[in-house]
Amino acid sequence: MLPELTTAVPLTPMNFNRRAEPAELPELMDEPCTYEELRDCLRDLAEVNRVTRGYAPTLAFLSRIAERHDHSQPLRILDVGSGGGDMLRAIAQWAATQNLEVELTGIDLNPHSTRAAQEFTGRESRGSKDRSAALASINWVAADVFAYSPEAQPDIILSALFTHHLSSPEIVRFLRWMEQNARIGWFINDLYRSRSAAFWFRFLPVLFGWHRFVQHDGPVSLRRAFTPSDWEQLLAAADISDATIESHPMNRLCISRIRPLP
Question: What is the CATH number of domain 28-258?
């Protein structure tokens, strides 16, 4: 059974046998900073995702959805904790190759993130006329997801490297929120907790010259990440019994649920 979910910081020593809560190990990017500082961090995080092929699990999930989707209607996709928007830009490019019409929305609590996503997207859209329309149509929202009420129900709710920023009670709340709001299904793309990955990620950002936030937060994220048993307990606490837990290359651990066809 999942231990009682409170916001209190556990008193047991931190090690890789359990997930570190965000209150125990803060990340620099979650702290107040200037727009320029966060923008530069998000730019390098997009590079991390490219280097580690972080988009692949999400795109594979969407490919399964596309096979059963009624193509007479656009597929409405909501990305929660959208950061600098690189996941939605990758989805826009994927959808264009599939000849699939999509409506893409990214929501992030931090208005600096939304501003950065708009800036990055504007730059990329100028590089290709074919991509310009798809990228320009992405809707960026700065808001608390739990207070967000879109006009049209999203078909799919996604998140990528978002849930490790949440406390365990917040994750349970988020799982329940997705269950209530996703018409077809949802997908969580996050990290697999690993001592070896945390060790090696101390060197990767230095090697590539990534932002100091990335150098600090990468190993911290891997301490705040998950194992399959963590997700089993969180899903049970959210009363969700039929989600799928899958590990992927480059230390990704993904959780998904697709509703049965009517």
Answer: 3.40.50.150
